[in-house]
Amino acid sequence: MTILIAEDEKSIVRGLEAYLRQEGFETLTAETEEGAIELLPGADLALLDISLEEGSGFGVCRQAKRRGLPVIFLTASGDESSVVRGLDMGADDYVAKPFRPRELISRIRSVLRRSGRGQTLVQLGDAAVDTERGTVTRDGREEVLSALEKRLLMVFINNRGRLLGRDRLLEEIWDAGGDFVNDNTLTVYIKRLRNKLERDPQNPEIIRTVRGSGYLVD
Ligand code: CA
């Protein structure tokens, strides 16, 4: 799923990009109305700021709706007239700034689901991962992933076929709230994930160890 972020405040864009990727989304970004409209064909959902560097989110919304694309507006808190105008234009939802990333993600998932775009099942070997519910099903048995297990697994899912070093993994799963994840914790979480995913966790076939380099999920 690719989320188009149309927003001219760079710090918000950077934060959103990092967070969305961590949650398994691809991102496209634009700072102007025209730039955002050009990117619409590659997007599954548009996340739109109202006032852009040039033009506005309303113009992007109009084009997005022509394409049947779901839209969520990022509005300044208390800006009710913009909220009303956006919803009148067919926007699916709005989130007031400053927003909590977790809340935004849950709104995005729910809008994607309603629009029938929320493809959330990923097959890894003989394990089926539901990335929305955070569960793994294998041999008819369902296991629930903890928040950190899920985040780690999403990093693997977003980087299938790529060798991931421990440093990179540690960087990626650094908690958005600032909790430090150390090397030992990473080892523990890899082990827990394997216990839930692998037929034989001692001989892992899904999260493979590449000696001296890191881990690989194909
Ligand atoms: Ca703005």
In words, what does this structure look like?
The protein has a 5-stranded parallel beta sheet with strand order 2-1-3-4-5, with helices on both faces. It has a 4-stranded antiparallel beta sheet with strand order 6-7-8-9, with no helix packed on it. A 3-stranded antiparallel beta sheet has the order 10-12-11. It is elongated. A hairpin with a 4-residue loop joins strand 7 (127-130) and strand 8. The protein is built from 8 helices and 12 strands. It starts with a strand and ends with a strand. Helix content is 40%, strand content 23%. The chain has 218 residues and is of the alpha/beta class. It folds into 2 domains: 2-114, Rossmann fold (3-Layer(aba) Sandwich); 122-216, Winged helix-like DNA-binding domain superfamily/Winged helix DNA-binding domain (Arc Repressor Mutant, subunit A), CATH 1.10.10. The longest helix has 15 residues, at 183-197. Calcium ion (CA) binds at residues 8-9, 49, 51-52.
Radius of gyration: 19 Å
What is the number of E strands?
12
Overall pLDDT metric: 90
Question: What is the number of domains?
Answer: 2
Please state the overall shape, judged from the principal axes of the Cα atoms.
elongated
Determine the number of helices (DSSP H or I, runs of at least 4 residues). 8
Oligomeric organization of the protein chains: single chain
What gap, in angstroms, lies between the N and C termini? 19 Å
What low-confidence regions span 5 or more consecutive residues with pLDDT below 50?
Answer: none
**Which structural category fits the helices and strands?**
alpha/beta
**Helix and strand element order:** EHEHEHEHEHEEEEHEHHEE
> How large a portion of the residues is in β-strands, by DSSP E?
15-25%
Major sheet strand order: 2-1-3-4-5
Profile the largest sheet.
Answer: 5 strands, parallel
Give the CATH H-level superfamily of the largest domain.
Response regulator
- Overall helicity: 40-55%
Query: Which cofactor or ligand species appear?
Result: calcium ion
CATH second-level architecture of the largest domain: 3-Layer(aba) Sandwich
Look at the structure and give the CATH class of the largest domain. Alpha Beta
